[in-house]
Amino acid sequence: MKKLIFTAVLTFLFYFAFSQNSLKFLSGTTGAACQAIKYYNGYVFTGTGSTLRSYYVGTGATLPYDSVFEYRFTSQIIRMLVNDHYLYIAANYDGMSKWDISNPAFPVKIFDIIPDSAGMATQGIALKGDTIFLAQQSKVTAYRDYGSSWSKITSFGYAPFAGIISGVALKDSLLAYTVWQWGGQNGVYLYNAKNFSFISFKQQTGFLTENVIWGKNNNLLHVMGGTNTTNGHFYTLDISDPYSPQMIF
Known about the structure:
Strand content: over 45%
Number of strands: 20
Distance between the termini: 59 Å
Order of helices and strands: HEEEEEEEEEEEEEEEEEEEE
Helix content: under 10%
C-alpha cells in the first residue's frame, strides 16, 4: 500500500514538474495565474505571474506547445501590448519594458521605463505614434519613444486620494483610463491625448474598476468595472459625445 502511495506521489510530482513549460498549463509557471497573453507571427507570449514566456504555435507545432523563451521579472506582469514587431510589457513595480520580437523565439529587450516615484506600479499601456502612455498607479505618464531610448514628456490625470489607475486605452486622440477608489471617485476618465487636457468623468457604482478597452469601428468604450464581494461588473459607454458618455449596456 505504501509503495502504491509513493508511486502515485512520484507520478504526480513528475507530471506537474514537466508540465511547467507547456502552453497547456498556463498557470503552471511557479503556480501563478496568467494575466496577459499576446500572439505574434506564429508565437504566443504569456505573462504568467512574474514570468514572460513565448511558445511556438505555428505550422508543425503540436499540443502541448513547448516554451522556447523565458524571462523572469521581479514583480507581476499585468498587461502586454504588441505593436509592429515590438512587445510592450507592464510588469507592476518593474515598470514597462519594450522588446524587439522580430524573431519571436529570441526576444531582445530594448529598454525599461521605471516609474519616477517609489512604489508606483505600472498597470497599463497605450500607444499613439511615438508616444507611450503608462498607467502608473496614481497618474498617467507620457513618454517619447525614440526607438532604442525614451524621454519623459509629462504626467497628468492624477487619481483621487488613495485611488489607483488600473487601466488605460487610446483611440485616435481620446485617452480613457479607469480609477478605483474606496471613497467613491471610481469610474472612467477621458483626456485629450494631444494636449493632455481633461474632457470628462463617468462615475460608476461601488465596484472597483479593472481595465478599459475601446471597441473597433465604433465609439464604444468597454469597461471592466471590477467586483464587489460577490459579483463582477461590466458595462459599455457610448463616447459619441466624449463630454457626456452614456451607458448603453
